[in-house]
């Protein structure tokens, strides 16, 4: 890596930003074109299940989000270039060096300042998505009061958890020598596992209310399914998702004995007991195939690789200079970590189809498991309702889906379920 020069790395970085932004924009345009081309006709596989007006609403919702997405890609790219080669991050760092003596505190403030800048730049489009697009299509239930409360809670929680974690990371980077990345990896992995344990009972209740499932007949039905599948949990809960959005969902959360099954109240309102059981069977499929564990292992392997890479870059002057930052010695660990976290996604975006393909494979496996535990037609009926009620497009562009969709396209997923039922 020592053969790299600042100008060469700058050129590679600019090229990566331009290509990633252009690719995202092109994919979004393809998605809009595909959705618009099929807007006036319900796909054959969904005729009789989805009304034309619902199909057109989903198309319009997708198009509206796509237009905002294109603007966001440009804003994010411009901000990244301004913060790096434009000198923004270097100016913040130099200001902090002149005013804050302790380099650990300076590192924390560097991350905090960069986070605030990113938040403020993204805020207008984020608010537009929530209070204009989501409201226009009947999804937003969030009030300004609740939005401000969520913001305050999220900020305080981030500071309370993220601050000490970042301090510990910076300390390990300073005192553990050349193999610091291995110690940081251990800390990071332990932190993520701890969050999995604490999220259901400590973190999530800060934002939503979770009440035990009251419907005794549905509860008995679900418990029978859990027994058949050999799954144990700490309870069945209903979350008041309707206070923020009309979108419906269900999920498992937690780890080990702290596992919970959570239903959005909006989901329970829209699905029949047969359909709810089928959706839960799908989620149990993820458990049976150990998808959560596999994703944790993958995350652990990737984070180890990325931290090792940062360990090779942290002492390279061209890494800093090539990104418009002056390397001056003490406190560079925070600067290196922040720079790395900012630029890595640009270089990784072309690999997005790999992670999306893995996720879609897991969804197919969970669907197949559900089809063995319940009637496949019940899961199909539930999915069709969710596509309709969540205004999910039935005609995505294949390339856009390959990069962005963690779930298979509706037509392929329904076909797969029908095949599994045979």
Overall 3D form: globular
Helix content: over 70%
Which stretches of 5+ consecutive residues score pLDDT under 50?
Answer: none
The secondary-structure element order is HHHHHHEHEEEHHHHHHHHH
- What is the tally of beta strands? 4
Query: What is the total domain count?
Result: 2
Strand residues, percent = under 5%
Q: What structural keywords apply?
A:
single chain, 422 residues, mainly alpha, Zincin-like, 2 domains, 16 helices, globular
Please outline what is shown here.
The protein is mainly alpha-helical.
Would you give an account of this structure?
The structure is a single chain. The protein has 422 residues and is mainly α. The chain folds into two domains: 6-178 and 318-342, no CATH class; 207-292 and 355-421, Metalloproteases ("zincins"), catalytic domain (Zincin-like). Helix content is 72%, strand content 4%. It has helices spanning 6-37, 52-83, 88-99, 103-136, 144-175, 180-203, 216-229, 265-270, 273-288, 291-313, 317-321, 332-348, 352-373, 376-389, 398-404, 410-421; strands spanning 210-212, 236-239, 250-253, 260-264. The protein has a four-stranded mixed β-sheet with strand order 1-2-4-3. Helix 9 packs across helix 13 (352-373) and helix 13 (352-373) runs parallel beside helix 16 (410-421). The chain starts with 5 loop residues before the first helix and ends with a helix.
Protein topology:
Elements: H1 6-37, H2 52-83, H3 88-99, H4 103-136, H5 144-175, H6 180-203, E1 210-212, H7 216-229, E2 236-239, E3 250-253, E4 260-264, H8 265-270, H9 273-288, H10 291-313, H11 317-321, H12 332-348, H13 352-373, H14 376-389, H15 398-404, H16 410-421
